[in-house]
Amino acid sequence: MLSKQNIAPKKGQAQGLSLEDQVTSSLAVVWRELAWKHWREVFSQARTTVRAIDVLGGMMFAVSTQKTVTASIRARGQEQRATWDPDYSLFSKAVWTSEDLFHGVFKAALDLLPPEGPIVLAVDDTHVPKSGGKPKQSSTRHGAPGLWRWVHNPLAPPWETHAMQWGYLMHHAVLVIPTRSNGRSTGITVAFEPVVRPPDEKVDGEAQTETSAEGPKRKKGRPTKAEAAAKAAAKANTPESPLKSTEIAARTVRRVRSWLDEAGLAHRLLIVVGDNSFTNQTIICDLPDRTSYVGRTRPDNSLQFPGKLRRDGSYTYGEEVGNLRNIARNPDVSSSIDDFWVGGDLHPLKTKVFGQVYRKSSTRKIPLMVIILVPRKYGDAEDRNTSHAAFLLTTDFTTPREVLIQAYLDRWSIEICHRDMKSHVGVGQAQVSSEKSIRRLHAAVAASWALLQVAALKTCGEARTDEIFGKLPRWQAQYRAWWTRKRLAEGKSAPVFRPTAPDVLGLFRKGFGVDWTNRQVRFRL
Description:
Blueprint: H1 19-39, H2 46-61, H3 69-75, H4 85-92, H5 98-108, E1 119-129, E2 148-152, E3 164-177, E4 186-194, H6 225-237, H7 245-262, E5 270-274, H8 281-284, E6 291-296, E7 304-309, E8 315-320, H9 324-329, E9 336-342, E10 345-357, E11 368-373, E12 377-378, E13 385-386, E14 390-394, H10 401-409, H11 412-425, H12 435-460, H13 466-469, H14 474-489, H15 501-516
Parallel strand pairs: 1-5, 5-6
Antiparallel strand pairs: 1-3, 2-3, 3-4, 6-14, 7-8, 9-10, 10-11, 11-14, 12-13
Helix pairs in contact: 1-5, 1-12, 1-15, 2-3, 2-12, 2-15, 4-12, 5-12
């Protein structure tokens, strides 16, 4: 049972708060209640749960340049404490797992799922930059060997020849919530963990020269029998290699499928969407029951039509499909035009669908269907551009193609989530040194932001209003007024704008200042 020292829960709003304070603090109250309800069983003690909520809430409240644990302590006005070790020990010594945190987020987001139809899960990987120098391979004080690598830098200037940066590769999965009132979808993070660099991948400063008593190692030619046997023996004695990004994604898909079954949604179909890097054998051949996949592929991918029918019901490989760009341009292939939600509005898209095809080099005997999104013109008449074609592969032959295409278009919500977490929430900015802290701190920050998104949808709705979030800056309000006039002149309805990450964080910070620091609103049991 919680004591007063551990902030015992009490029902109802606190006395002495004005109506304005109650409105501005509602988001912080709901977030805190959701965190207590769904994270209470994650930690071994109630006081650890309270500390986790305080630390993560303080990191989102902090307005400093870097969202660190120190910034969280100062935001809560506790910089004069005797020691700061308990807040750092929360990530290095406390007993809890990031999977349990995201399971709580998943339970909190169940009310936001559509009442019927498939459930969409988007998978991707993103890069988190690391500040500071590169640690040595033997160093255990300055970080975890194997976590850091050279990764792509999407924000590099165009004159950079090699757009690389030193950081982490993170696996990311979001549950797509179709918020159609604002014409878009919202991604709720349900998995966020680092991808460990394999031991055979060398980086600067870690490569070591191999010497042999027989002389220099041969660089060319096929290995001899002795060399092949020695290599096989060395591979058998080496420890198990860390999971790749696609293997972690396959594990995440199985975990989310089991969560749906436990929540009583075993009858609902789970559609997994991904980009080209996830459309491979690791994902497609390891899909659980009642789960299908839709992913992008290259136009020059090696695909074969089915050949002769065998006695066991399978087919031999037939002739090759060829380049998918030629099929997209071929007028003899039947096509259809349907309306899809893209960029906050319904747009007509021309699609072509054909199957059944096989990928001999990877998925082998698993039948696939090809979906082609034909390029379309967009922009004003004076300056019109053409979009790029999209080539998709899916394992689902029963779900209507409109549902599969819309699921893939909603995958863009995970890219928005990448931007919000790294630019506004501060994922990757916290500075910790132990291996366990590195693995768990970024996941905890991502889980706290996902829970705040759920609280914002439940408290503030799907549309942005000045009554809740305040007035926009003058330049932004003028742009939105111009966009509204343009749509009305075209005979369309007025656009509905969704709250951005700065809007949600700003409203949360107001509630933090009213309820969190003064300790006036308690948890609800």
